[in-house]
């Protein structure tokens, strides 16, 4: 199997729903990331053989194959194709997998993996209704809201409200500290946004982290999904707007073009899990990719696991014994936001950057997915 390397990655700052990026058409938002990653890599757009773009709600302004529309808007030649895919919250990561697999298989040498979501312009869940899941399927499985699933995971794995709020507070503190230290500076691209008064502003950092968050304030928030439950707006991921893109190449092709590989993709997996609990698929996904590579969690220098809800990360950690000092060290979706289709690409740009910062070797990214699935990717930093 051929070696696939990450040459460059970039992401927009993440805006809150109805926040600083609210006026961006999602096609324009995605196009900005596609254009920027090619500029940073110094590669002609016409050399890209395919663009795979994750988008979880591909209707209305995100419909009609947003990947192709964004590529055309970004000025790629018409011979460069593009496709939009939806594996729910794992869409961006699956875009990365599909692009990498095409290179591994030898059908192409250069591909772009990207993701976008404007949860302001196209609300989550608007691509389905009460008729979407047929009665025969509902007789076999209990389909519930992900927030209710998070409550059940907390109950199953013995996760308390206090633990969830403490984790959420830590996510904000880590994100705030990382922002102040400039840890996101290389992966971020500046973008024009609008403040609450509609005035045009230059957006240079993520909008989500809350400077005034405290354990006391988190404890005062009421449960959202279940009466007397533990899941609140404070220990859940934020609804967000954003886009990201990663340029992948076959290793020899990158060398021939005089480009520096930043990381190589070692393995990628996807698993199915219980469709009702759904969010604990990150546990078998992690086990599978470790078994596939022969590595242990102790050998992994950094982990990015999507913070859909605090119990997801805490149940994963409790089951696998992971060291949280290595996990989401710069904050996660609770603080930084979760622009659904872009999240997998966003997290990978952060993971590569973080491995370079600490001169680490192995990085793991794992994401839980609705209806019971999970994706995982393991990368190795390339020393140059």
Describe this structure in words.
By secondary structure, the chain is α+β, with helices and mostly antiparallel strands. Helices cover 34% and strands 20% of the residues. It has helices at residues 26-41, 66-73, 91-105, 135-140, 146-157, 161-180, 215-220, 251-256, 282-293, 310-320, 333-336, 343-358, and strands at residues 4-11, 15-16, 51-54, 82-85, 110-118, 191-194, 200-203, 240-250, 263-272, 302-305, 362-369, 373-381. Strands 1, 2, 3, 4, 5, 8, 9, 10, 11 and 12 form a 10-stranded mixed β-sheet that branches. The chain is globular and about 60 Å long. The two termini are 22 Å apart.
Question: Can you tell me the residue ranges where pLDDT is under 50 for at least 5 consecutive residues?
Answer: none
Q: Give the ordered list of helices and strands.
A: EEHEHEHEHHHEEHEHEHEHHHEE
Q: Please give the number of β-strands.
A: 12
Helix amount: 25-40%
How much of the sequence is in beta strands? 15-25%
Q: Mean pLDDT across all residues, rounded?
A: 98
Tally of helical runs: 12
Shape: globular
> Kindly, what is the distance between the CA atoms of the first and last residues, rounded to a whole number of angstroms?
22 Å
| Main pleated-sheet profile | 10 strands, mixed
Structural class, from helix and strand content?
alpha+beta
Query: How large is the radius of gyration?
Result: 19 Å
Domain Thiolase N-terminal: 4-251
InterPro entries: Thiolase (IPR002155), Thiolase-like (IPR016039), Thiolase_C (IPR020617), Thiolase_CS (IPR020613), Thiolase_N (IPR020616)
Keywords: Acyltransferase, Transferase
Domain Thiolase C-terminal: 260-381
């Amino acid at each position: 199997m051929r070696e696939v390397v990450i040459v460059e990655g970039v992401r927009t700052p993440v805006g809150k729903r109805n926040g600083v990026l609210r006026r961006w058409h999602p096609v324009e938002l995605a196009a900005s990331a596609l254009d920027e990653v090619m500029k940073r890599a110094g590669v002609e757009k016409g050399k890209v053989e395919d663009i795979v773009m994750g988008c979880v709600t591909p209707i209305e302004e995100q419909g009609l194959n947003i990947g192709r529309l964004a590529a055309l808007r970004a000025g790629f030649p018409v011979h460069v194709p593009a496709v939009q895919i939806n594996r729910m919250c794992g869409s961006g990561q699956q875009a990365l997998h599909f692009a990498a697999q095409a290179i591994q298989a030898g059908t192409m040498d250069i591909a772009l993996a990207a993701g976008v979501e404007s949860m302001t312009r196209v609300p989550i869940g608007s691509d389905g209704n009460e008729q979407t899941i047929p009665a025969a399927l509902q007789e076999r499985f209990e389909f519930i809201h992900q927030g209710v699933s998070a409550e059940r995971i907390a109950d199953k794995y013995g996760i308390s409200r206090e633990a969830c709020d403490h984790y959420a507070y830590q996510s904000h503190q880590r994100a705030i500290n990382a922002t102040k230290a400039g840890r996101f500076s290389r992966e971020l691209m500046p973008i024009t946004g609008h403040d609450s008064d509609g005035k045009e502003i230059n957006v240079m950092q993520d909008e989500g982290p809350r400077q005034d968050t405290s354990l006391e304030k988190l404890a005062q928030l009421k449960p959202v999904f279940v009466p007397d439950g533990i899941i609140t707006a404070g220990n859940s991921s934020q609804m967000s707007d954003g886009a990201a893109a990663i340029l992948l190449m076959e290793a020899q092709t990158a060398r021939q073009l005089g480009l520096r590989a930043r990381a190589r993709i070692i393995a990628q997996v996807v698993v199915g899990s219980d469709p009702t609990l759904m969010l604990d698929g990150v546990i078998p996904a992690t086990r599978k990719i470790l078994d596939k590579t022969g590595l242990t969690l102790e050998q992994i220098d950094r982990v990015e696991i999507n913070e859909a809800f605090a119990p997801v990360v805490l149940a994963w950690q409790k089951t696998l014994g992971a060291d949280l000092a290595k996990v989401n060290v710069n904050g996660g979706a609770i603080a930084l936001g979760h622009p659904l289709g872009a999240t997998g690409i966003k997290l990978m740009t952060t993971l590569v950057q973080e491995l370079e910062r600490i001169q680490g070797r192995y990085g793991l990214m794992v994401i839980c997915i609705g209806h019971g699935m999970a994706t995982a990717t393991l990368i190795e930093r390339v020393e140059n």
